[in-house]
Amino acid sequence: MSNSIRAVRGMNDILPDETGLWAFFEDTIRQWLSAYGYRNLRTPIVEQTDLFVRSIGAVTDIVEKEMYTFIDHLNGESLTLRPEGTAACVRAVIEHNLLYAGPQRLYYSGPMFRHERPQKGRYRQFHQVGVEALGLAGPDIDAELILMCARLWRLLGIPDVRLEISTLGSVESRTVYRSRLINYLEKFADELDEDARRRLHSNPLRILDSKNPAMREILEGAPRLLDDLDEDSLKHFESLQQILRNQGINFEINLRLVRGLDYYNRTVFEWVTDKLGAQGTICAGGRYDGLIAQIGGKPAPACGFAMGVERILALMLENQVEGVAAVPDVYLVHQGEAATEFAWKVAETLRDEGFKVMQHCGGGSFKAQMKKADASGARFAAIIGDDEALAGEISIKPLREAAEQVKADLAEAAALLRNV
């Protein structure tokens, strides 16, 4: 066993007993997004490193410490496994000129990669669903994204989630605020933790989101970005709040909510739970009006959010939400040469009729096969011996309710199974 190969630390197998919940989640996601007019976009797992440095920001934890970056030895390019999906989505929109046709409502899903210390709800390969609305500038689309999330939590059966919102204003208002914040924090230079000292002059707004309890008292007295907001940003934020109130969405204003990526402006929001310990944010996003131009496209407004699939599934399990059980409708039992030959035809015919059929393989007595049929969870056993095969018949035995075993020819079997 010492020589066995194991999965990479923090990159987990998803086993068959778990995938039923994933399937339920994924089916719900597709129907939910279709109801709002969002279309699927699929981008590569690997992108040029510069895409993430330019979009996320060089002085961020993701770029500085967490990206899986390597040199392609065939051509010398620096490549990175995607640590998040928005930058790749925007790159694809620019490259294929999708905004030429007008605003786009898009979504993506799949694995992301960050080299972090693995813990519950935080893995090195994790999965996200991201939703992006590009080419729309008003607070109405910000509100739509938040209302979408509120509906999703209801569809998934997870009630214990609260909404926190804030605004980062414009680049100009943040520049004014940034100077005031640095001046304030410099007074506490000896008391700042290592992360805060490192970020003080490069990315001071990230200090506001510190999880270090020792920083709380210092940050309580920090100046508020809200006090430096430009008029348009303030109006945008107030309009968003009004729409949410009108739609019955409860929210808290969290002025320390800044998000970890440099490209955000104006609206930012998080959906948070107390049920998952330290990893309480299950969905987060906001507006990123400057990102399209920053990556090289024609300036256009944009906003979106991403949700952590593993965290949401953990919350669904906490609320005892059941997934889709991968069980057959029919377990096909057969013994004898003629029976086995006929069983192939029966299995394919029933599948053509829309039934999920598990055909027994590996031989064995009728008794042993019936035990397997019962263990499979199937509602029916379809039993074929050589006598049935020669007569072109199937014995159908209900396994989950008290009903008589009946015989039917192949042409009648599908109708019988539907009516039992």
UniProtKB/TrEMBL annotation:
<dbReference type="InterPro" id="IPR045864">
    <property type="entry name" value="aa-tRNA-synth_II/BPL/LPL"/>
</dbReference>
<dbReference type="Pfam" id="PF03129">
    <property type="entry name" value="HGTP_anticodon"/>
</dbReference>
<feature type="binding site">
    <location>
        <position position="114"/>
    </location>
    <ligand>
        <name>L-histidine</name>
    </ligand>
</feature>
<keyword id="KW-0030">Aminoacyl-tRNA synthetase</keyword>
<dbReference type="GO" id="GO:0005524">
    <property type="term" value="F:ATP binding"/>
</dbReference>
<dbReference type="InterPro" id="IPR004154">
    <property type="entry name" value="Anticodon-bd"/>
</dbReference>
<keyword id="KW-0436">Ligase</keyword>
<dbReference type="InterPro" id="IPR033656">
    <property type="entry name" value="HisRS_anticodon"/>
</dbReference>
<dbReference type="GO" id="GO:0006427">
    <property type="term" value="P:histidyl-tRNA aminoacylation"/>
</dbReference>
<feature type="binding site">
    <location>
        <position position="132"/>
    </location>
    <ligand>
        <name>L-histidine</name>
    </ligand>
</feature>
<dbReference type="InterPro" id="IPR036621">
    <property type="entry name" value="Anticodon-bd_dom_sf"/>
</dbReference>
<dbReference type="InterPro" id="IPR041715">
    <property type="entry name" value="HisRS-like_core"/>
</dbReference>
<dbReference type="GO" id="GO:0004821">
    <property type="term" value="F:histidine-tRNA ligase activity"/>
</dbReference>
<keyword id="KW-0547">Nucleotide-binding</keyword>
<dbReference type="InterPro" id="IPR015807">
    <property type="entry name" value="His-tRNA-ligase"/>
</dbReference>
<comment type="similarity">
    <text>Belongs to the class-II aminoacyl-tRNA synthetase family.</text>
</comment>
<dbReference type="InterPro" id="IPR004516">
    <property type="entry name" value="HisRS/HisZ"/>
</dbReference>
<feature type="binding site">
    <location>
        <begin position="263"/>
        <end position="264"/>
    </location>
    <ligand>
        <name>L-histidine</name>
    </ligand>
</feature>
<comment type="subunit">
    <text>Homodimer.</text>
</comment>
<dbReference type="GO" id="GO:0005737">
    <property type="term" value="C:cytoplasm"/>
</dbReference>
<dbReference type="Pfam" id="PF13393">
    <property type="entry name" value="tRNA-synt_His"/>
</dbReference>
<keyword id="KW-0963">Cytoplasm</keyword>
<protein>
    <recommendedName>
        <fullName>Histidine--tRNA ligase</fullName>
        <ecNumber>6.1.1.21</ecNumber>
    </recommendedName>
</protein>
<dbReference type="InterPro" id="IPR006195">
    <property type="entry name" value="aa-tRNA-synth_II"/>
</dbReference>
<feature type="binding site">
    <location>
        <position position="128"/>
    </location>
    <ligand>
        <name>L-histidine</name>
    </ligand>
</feature>
<keyword id="KW-0067">ATP-binding</keyword>
<feature type="domain" description="Aminoacyl-transfer RNA synthetases class-II family profile">
    <location>
        <begin position="1"/>
        <end position="328"/>
    </location>
</feature>
<feature type="binding site">
    <location>
        <position position="259"/>
    </location>
    <ligand>
        <name>L-histidine</name>
    </ligand>
</feature>
<feature type="binding site">
    <location>
        <begin position="84"/>
        <end position="86"/>
    </location>
    <ligand>
        <name>L-histidine</name>
    </ligand>
</feature>
<keyword id="KW-0648">Protein biosynthesis</keyword>
